[in-house]
Amino acid sequence: MDAMTGVAGVLGRINDITSRFGGGSSDSFVVVPPTPFDPFGAQYQAAVSTMSGGPGASFAQSYAAPAAGVSGVGPAGGGGPSLRAGSPVPPAQPTADQIQRAIDGIAGPPGHRPIGGYGKLPVPTELVAYGNGRVPREALTPIGQGNHRLFAPAAAAWQNVVAAARADGIDLRITDSYRPYEEQVDLANRKGLYKNGGLAAVPGTSTHGWGMAVDADIRDPATMEWLRVNGPRFGWVETTPREPWHWEFRPTQV
Predict the structure, then answer these.
(1) What span, in angstroms and rounded, lies between the C-alpha atoms of 186 and 93?
(2) Terminal CA-to-CA distance of the chain, rounded, Å?
(3) How far are the Cα atoms of 71, 134, 246 from residue 179, in angstroms, in the given order?
(4) Which of 5, 40, 100, 237 has the largest count of CB atoms under 10 Å?
(5) Helix or strand run (H / E) with residue 6
């Protein structure tokens, strides 16, 4: 097998997996190999590095810097264009009642939502003062998984997502949560920026930098299906078509 054939095979396999993940029924999913989940793994790295002029590149080239104080939805939860036309204005800050409904798992009915198109993230005012990736540890809340922390309402809602999944026999874990600015810079240096065909958000624009996003440890179709059906009940939505693991806390948009 020559190099070009190998690359084509990898791209074809990733495109096939992506299209199947986008399906609405459980029988549309492929079997994911039982290997440790890595959202920046070798297959994605190889694909992105050879996608010049492809769908991923055109998506990245449409990058637009977000307005100050808010982070746009885009690859890896970073800055980027709205994926759904007609909603340039960020939604209002969630009310205490909306947040509590998300924590209680009744923010919206169960079921699949369109992937992406949520526009810019409405950043809580108490976080804006710190800056993206500059939120102090004491202003974030542990979620009960390793050292992962999130903005308090997001943490409470995610903990309840995990508990609900466990009750249904799903072990829902994450690989990433709050991402400090220094880690955003390191990721950009190692993986490249999306707008240049890489894998990282522009440092200072990632929704991870507000403690409002997680990368779910999705290793099998059952976990993906469960999260897509039940995540919105708790205010968590899938914001990026190319990244089924990336979920954001948006209780006003479920």
Answers:
(1) 31
(2) 46
(3) 13, 9, 13
(4) 237
(5) helix 3-21
Q: What are phi and psi of 203, to 5 degrees?
A: -50, 135
The domains located in the chain, with CATH, are 3-249 (3.30.1380.10)
Whether the CB-CB separation of 75 and 51 falls below 8 Å is answered with no
- Quick: pLDDT tens for 174-225: 999 999 999 999 989 998 887 787 778 899 999 999 999 999 999 999 999 9
- Dihedral of alpha carbons 222, 75, 81, 184, sign: positive
Identify the residue with better confidence: 53 or 178: 178
CA distance 219 to 238: 16
Cα 64 to chain centroid distance, Å, stands at: 18
Does this model's pTM top 0.70? My answer is no
